[in-house]
Design brief:
The complex is a heterodimer of chains A (374) and B (288).
Chain A (H helix, E strand, L loop, with lengths): L11 H5 L2 E6 L3 H19 L6 H26 L8 H17 L4 H23 L4 H19 L11 E2 L2 H4 L5 H8 L3 H29 L1 H11 L1 H6 L4 H27 L1 E2 L1 H4 L2 H15 L5 H17 L4 H17 L3 H9 L10 E6 L5 H4 L2
Antiparallel strand pairs in A: 1-4, 2-3
Helix pairs in contact in A: 3-9, 3-12, 3-14, 3-15, 4-5, 4-6, 4-12, 5-12, 8-9, 9-10, 9-12, 14-15, 14-17, 15-17
Chain B lengths: L1 H31 L6 H17 L4 H23 L9 H22 L15 E5 L2 E4 H23 L1 H11 L1 H6 L4 H26 L7 H15 L4 H21 L4 H15 L11
Antiparallel strand pairs in B: 1-2
Helix pairs in contact in B: 1-5, 1-8, 1-9, 1-10, 2-3, 2-4, 2-8, 2-9, 3-8, 5-6, 5-8, 9-10, 9-11, 10-11
The chains are: A mainly alpha (374), B mainly alpha (288).
Chain lengths: 374, 288
């Protein structure tokens, strides 16, 4: 990755005095995180061997919400594209999965990938229309797009129309790799399905996280934060604002579609209202990002934990639970718009997943360079 | 043929209602460049407040007269206590505050009034209609609603273009820094703006309940119709907003005439088409 490399600024004067400049993104904490991440992921992969089925199902939910949150965070926090219509792509992905499996008889796991591609394709014309709106109006424009998708799919009778449809049992049991899981853990069909879904959710969550992280640390990430600061200034320094935004919008739509496909493969039942739910796939996701800390890699992770705990203990309150979430979001925006991670990083200067570039100035030999080269 | 004329006529009348939804949103955006995601839910809230008063025995028109200043006060408080604190270049905080408010209002109404559908009983006017000959008739209530939306726009334009406070509104809309230099307190202007917008929501809520059934969940859809009317009309012009409302209304009734399931969809599609052909709307005034 090009970004970790120190960029030498060819300032002759400074060099003669033995000063050395470098730009780095890595921190000590990030190196530690990297070493902890690998065994962490291995443990999570091996979890089905000892965890209960209920725990796996709960983690499935957490991982899919984390992936959606990380994607919305990239869109809104980094690219400044505040969308309240991401349910469009969850729903498109979900319906694409049902179309691929039920109508075209394809393998469910392959269909998840195809569903992502379809959601990405839908996002291209959608972007060309809603990009004509700016700021807050862009937000409502994305919502209209989601409504259009919902209303169109409610007309498709092969996929259940307005009332929806269920996934035939033989589709789910034909998943690739199911026999392998069944033999590996000596479990029955439904349990094997949960394990496979759990692995897929883990893959999507970790994959999304890794790709977003890499993107933000690359030169494209720098372009994104430039756009976030000032589109005009970014354009003038050579960033192709439109192309960058289009790429981010379409890429997040495709990934969101894959997550949506997986969620509804696991649910095995779909309806337009569930697949294009504003509350489930956008309001909750925004809440996760905002309470954790928008624009940071750490935010969505903290946010999803807080959200899960709230959901676990308070969801039974029904409407009052939603009122509480809405109220929390308002209080947060008024008093701590940077979220929990924002509060933490105000007091402690740690960043396990740094995406910011820091200028390192050293007086001394060039040999020091090695230290910042992570 | 007559069926089509009737369809378009009903669409124009429906557009009057959508223009009422949209006027508040148009005023807010024109002056503050802000979007209120709770706009639709606040319209529904007003309808429920009128319903609650009417149920308690207050005559329905008096209930409206009471709820208008109530909603004005709510808007003033909302802006001065919350939204004024997060004004600035970052649009996320105000957007999310109104999003949170939308969820609170929706679920608060659900808790207080249940999910049952309701309507406002406006007496003998409810089902009354005027025959126009040739089998075409227009409802009296929809006609009053269209007249009300025209009256509201005339009134607001009168305030904005003929009074001293209206001058302050326009100055703040044009350039907030210069307006402040001239001694205008922009935060007061913003609070008044939100108050006016919600007062219009109260009128919209009255006609929402008088024309059709409503329940706590229908707010977001009203927000979308209102938003589409504003964008189709072009930012900064209230007459444009009325035209935008009529475009959405006619698109919906025409769609419904072809297939009842296409009503809402065709309204949205009309919006998207206008956005592609004329991204700045039909009658743009503001540059933004």
């Amino acid at each position: 990755m090009g970004t970790g490399e120190p960029i030498k600024l060819g300032l002759g004067e400074s060099h003669r005095r033995g000063r050395h400049f470098a730009v780095a993104t890595a921190t000590r904490a990030s190196t530690v995180t990297l070493f902890l991440a690998v065994p962490g992921i291995v443990v999570l992969l091996a979890l089905p061997a000892f965890a209960s089925r209920v725990l796996l199902q709960e983690l499935f939910y957490v991982f899919t919400m984390l992936a959606l949150a990380q994607l919305w965070n990239l869109l809104a926090g980094s690219a400044g594209l505040i969308s309240v219509g991401q349910q469009a792509f969850v729903g498109m992905g979900a319906y694409a999965l049902f179309a691929c499996t039920v109508v075209a008889n394809l393998d469910p796991v392959l269909s998840i990938v195809l569903a992502g591609a379809i959601a990405g394709l839908v996002a291209i014309p959608a972007a060309l229309i809603v990009f004509r709106l700016r700021g807050a109006y862009f937000a409502i424009g994305t919502w209209v797009v989601a409504e259009v998708c919902r209303l169109i799919l409610a007309q498709v009778k092969q996929l259940g129309g307005g009332t929806g449809t269920s996934l035939p049992p033989d589709v789910a049991s034909s998943m690739v790799g199911l026999d392998f899981v069944r033999n590996l853990f000596a479990v029955r069909g439904p349990a094997a399905r949960d394990i496979l879904s759990y692995w897929l959710a883990l893959t999507l969550a970790v994959g999304t996280f890794f790709l977003v992280y890499r993107l933000l640390r690359s030169r494209h990430g720098l372009a994104l934060s430039a756009i976030g600061d000032s589109e005009t200034a970014a354009e003038s320094t050579g960033v192709d604002v439109f192309r960058t935004k289009l790429f981010i919008y379409v890429a997040t739509a495709a990934a969101t579609g894959m997550v949506g496909a997986l969620i509804f493969l696991q649910k095995a039942r779909i309806s337009p209202d569930a697949a294009f739910s504003l509350i489930d796939w956008t309001a909750y996701v925004i809440f996760i990002v905002v309470i954790g800390g928008i624009g940071t890699m750490e935010g969505p992770i903290i946010g999803v934990v807080i959200f899960y705990l709230l959901q676990y203990y308070l969801a039974s309150l029904g409407s009052w639970y939603l009122i509480l979430l809405g109220g929390l979001a308002i209080v947060l925006m008024l008093f701590a718009p940077a979220g929990v991670w924002g509060l933490i990083s105000r007091f402690y200067d740690i960043s396990p997943f740094p995406v910011r570039r820091r200028l390192i100035v050293r007086v001394g030999k060039v040999a020091d360079e090695k230290e910042s080269k992570n | 043929m007559l069926g089509w004329i009737d369809t378009v006529l009903q669409g124009i009348l429906l557009g009057g209602l959508y223009a009422l939804y949209a006027t508040g949103l148009s005023v807010i955006f024109g002056i503050m460049r802000l979007v209120n995601l709770a706009h639709g839910d606040l319209i529904v809230l007003a309808a429920f407040l009128i319903l609650a008063l009417a149920t308690a025995g207050v005559p329905i028109v008096l209930a409206l007269v009471i709820v208008v200043p109530l909603m004005f006060a709510l808007g003033y408080a909302l802006q001065s206590l919350m939204l004024n604190r997060v004004l600035g270049r970052n649009i996320l905080p105000p957007l999310l505050i109104t999003f949170g408010l939308s969820i609170i209002v929706q679920n608060g109404l659900l808790e207080s009034f249940s999910a049952d559908t309701r309507f406002l009983n406006v007496g003998p006017l409810q089902g009354a209609s005027l025959p126009l000959g040739g089998g075409i008739a227009v409802g009296v209530m929809p006609l009053i609603c269209l007249a009300a939306s025209i009256a509201v726009i005339l009134l607001l334009n009168g305030v904005f273009y003929r009074t001293a406070v209206g001058r302050a509104f326009r100055a703040t809309s044009d350039d907030v820094e210069i307006a402040q230099l001239m001694g205008i307190n922009n935060k007061t202007i913003y609070a008044l703006t939100m108050g006016i917008a919600l007062a219009v929501c109260a009128v919209a809520g009255f006609f929402l309940g008088a024309r059709a059934n409503f329940d706590p969940s229908i707010g977001p859809a009203r927000l979308l119709y209102a938003f589409e009317a504003v964008i189709i009309g072009g930012l900064g012009s209230l007459w444009g907003t009325l035209a935008g409302g009529i475009v959405v209304g006619v698109a919906q009734t025409v769609g419904a005439h072809i297939d009842p399931e296409w009503q809402i969809l065709s309204g949205h599609v009309a919006f998207l088409i206008v956005l592609v052909i004329r991204p700045r709307g039909l009658f743009p005034r503001a540059v933004d």
